[in-house]
Design goal:
153 residues, globular, 4 helices, 4-stranded parallel β-sheet, 28% strand, 4-stranded mixed β-sheet
Length: 153
């Protein structure tokens, strides 16, 4: 448990995205989405406030990520994974943009240390499969070797 407040520290390795949603009435709103923010929100509702989201994102996500503890930081020159969701009477039409930005986060020394110390590690890579796959071995290595010295990155 986290020494500060006896609440578990949680690291969510997942995705963040910018959702542009259009309702049947033609109203459009833009906000955050992805497994990282939704996992962090669920943890908050359960009373756990010490949640860090590890994800790849660009500077365009900064305004949507306020209120979340994000690591390792925005990648300059990259646009964040985004979805356009249009709701019609027939259902939702979803279009993915910037899928190449949805790769694994950079496993910096600081992020590795955070994963090593986390009470709970959530791996929630709901991103295009080709982007998520390369991260899995490194995530598992980092989690499995929590008591050993991690290689520098």
């Amino acid at each position: 448990m986290s020494e500060r407040n006896n609440a578990p520290s949680i690291v969510v390795i997942g995705s963040v995205c910018i959702d542009t949603n259009t309702t049947e009435k033609g109203e459009t709103y833009i906000g955050w989405g992805g497994t990282g923010p939704y996992s962090a929100l669920a943890a908050r509702k359960l009373g756990v406030g010490n949640v860090t989201i590890a994800a790849s994102y660009g500077p365009d996500f900064t305004e949507y990520g306020k209120g979340f503890n994000l690591m390792p930081g925005p990648i300059e020159g990259v646009q964040t994974l985004a979805y356009t969701n249009v709701t019609t009477r027939a259902g939702r039409i979803q279009t993915c943009h910037n899928a190449e930005a949805a790769g694994p986060p950079k496993f910096t020394k600081r992020l590795r240390k955070l994963i090593k110390r986390a009470d709970i590690l959530v791996v929630a890579p709901l991103v295009p499969v080709s982007a998520a796959t390369p991260a899995c071995p490194e995530i598992m290595f980092t989690a499995a070797r929590a008591d050993e010295t991690m290689p520098a990155s």
